[in-house]
Write a structure and sequence with these properties.
This protein is of the alpha/beta class. It has 10 helices and 6 strands; from the N terminus they run βααββαααααβαββαα. Helix 3 packs across helix 5. The termini are far apart. Mean pLDDT is 78; it is low at 7-11 and 13-20.
Length: 288
């Protein structure tokens, strides 16, 4: 299923008003092909259920169960689209050398531009997810997402500066300012959803565990004065996390499981692990 982003129609209208009509259809075809390669790669890795959302500056593939993908699988899916554009760019460049045909040059430029543009480390582009997946090799998902969001915001700001400087000389690049606002908007949206993504991952891990019958554990130690959101950030996307709460002398105070953090956040808010342990102790006393 293909869906239009709410900003897509106004953007196309603006392009027509400023006189940009020539290559829209051609670009659209290669954008859809780009997303189809993402889809084929995802299907090859075992993911299904999708729709394509047409964005003002491209398209985005939404897979129903893609959130269950590991960082490595998401990296492979994300990079497949730009790599396809680069392969097509090489093919059309070779064809141009053999046959002096203007359309081959246009196809070469379009695919080269799409490949480079989509590798920008900014949301919602492939490069944003690729950067996050690379960072996930060394960092936790939350930390990797935060760094990627700040990089994405920086690129949005740089694009705005690149728009404003030529504007003083009478050059008005409308595409550049619209792209910068779109990247900044998606970056702020991604920043707000980081915590909720982690919560969703915890719930999905339970279903994944029931389906496969096994899940890899990850045990970490956390200082009892730290709050629950700090602990939530320590949870791995694809592993079941067990938190050992330690006191000032690094003695074990309590074992806390990841679903207990979610339940406590819902019931008590962002309290410290020390407060959670005290509440649990009082509940045990009341029940006994």
């Amino acid at each position: 299923m293909i869906k239009l982003n709410k900003y897509c129609i106004p953007y196309i209208i603006i392009l027509f008003l400023v006189g940009f009509r020539g290559q829209l259809a051609t670009i659209f075809i290669f954008v859809i092909l780009h997303e189809f390669i993402h889809y084929l790669t995802a299907r090859k890795l075992g993911f299904s259920g999708f729709h394509i959302e047409i964005l003002p500056f491209g398209a985005s593939l939404k897979l129903k169960d893609l959130e269950e993908a590991s960082c490595k699988e998401e990296f492979i899916i994300s990079i497949s689209g730009p790599m396809m554009n680069f392969v097509l760019a090489v093919i059309f460049y070779a064809a141009l050398k053999m046959y002096d045909y203007d359309e081959f040059y246009n196809f070469f430029i379009i695919n080269l531009s799409l490949g480079i543009f989509n590798l920008l480390p900014a949301f919602p582009l492939d490069g944003g997810r690729i950067l996050r997946d690379i960072l996930c090799k060394k960092l936790l998902y939350k930390k990797a997402s935060k760094i990627t969001v700040y990089v994405s915001m920086t690129i949005g700001i740089i694009l705005q500066i690149l728009y404003l400087v030529p504007l003083f000389y009478g050059v008005n690049n409308l595409n550049l300012i619209l792209i910068s606002f779109f990247i900044l908007s998606c970056s702020f949206k991604e920043k707000r959803r980081i915590v909720y993504v982690i919560m969703e991952d915890i719930m999905k891990k339970r279903l994944k565990f029931m389906k496969n019958g096994v899940i890899e554990n990850r045990i970490i130690s956390v200082f009892y004065k730290k709050d629950l959101l700090f602990g939530l950030g320590m949870i791995d996307k694809n592993k079941y996390t067990i938190l050992t709460v330690l006191d000032d002398n690094m003695r074990v105070m309590k074992i806390i499981y990841e679903e207990e953090i979610i339940n406590a956040l819902k019931e008590y808010g962002n309290i410290t692990f020390e407060e959670l342990i005290q509440i649990k102790g009082k509940n045990v006393e009341l029940n006994s």
